[in-house]
Amino acid sequence: MEEMSINDIHLTKDWLLGGRVCLRQPSRGYRVSIDSVLLAASVPALEGELLLELGSGTGAASLCLLKRVPRCQIIGIENNEDMLFLSRENILLNKLDDFITFVNADVTNLPIQISQQGFDHVFSNPPYLQASRSDRRESSIKEGHFANVEGTADLSAWIKVMALALKPKGRLTLIHRADRLDEILSILDKYVGEIVVFPLWPKYGRSAKRVVISARKGVSTPLRLSSGLVLHESDGAYTKEASHILESGMALLV
Q1: Distance between CA atoms of 13 and 22, rounded to whole angstroms?
Q2: Which of 235, 228, 198 is nearest to 213 (CA)?
Q3: Average of per-residue pLDDT across 223-244
């Protein structure tokens, strides 16, 4: 892990997917977790398809996705200028500037030329915490930026924008807290169908803390609960299945 600084933010240089993705990110506060890698692995994109990521942060999910699915086109939306700067630096570090564009915009106010494109896939790792339930002092990576806490756009707004940006039959994919699943499903039911809930079990016999959710626009297939993925063995090491995804860049089949 190489350390550096830029714009008064102390940074580290880290590696994802077993060294296939290089990532500059803040050394303190909100840092990329395995959630971003699992989200990227969950999007069943094909080469040549058009994708939109909402809340792209330092670009980790989009970069990981492109390493698995070369030559798809991704637009990432991020409203924090420091994170946007880092995400654009990370595109260049990974030599993927022909395939990813990160745009400074708010989730609820997308530029018309983006919102009306009709995407094959829209994916996101929305803020996990409601503002009323969070300690904003612990959530800040830099004064004024709270990456893990909902701001003016709540979860309902995020999901609505995701669904509206899809083309007919397009697919929405998100990762979120399992304890907000009932809320997520009630929102999704207004916009999409063919909903699949994919639990992420921390260890065998433990309750899921995260879920990956997939859905399609204009498809009415009933909800399906998947068997999910166990992340860790009893000794804390990644399971073989999780390691294939996190280290080797294999797809997560939701």
Answers
A1: 7
A2: 198
A3: 97
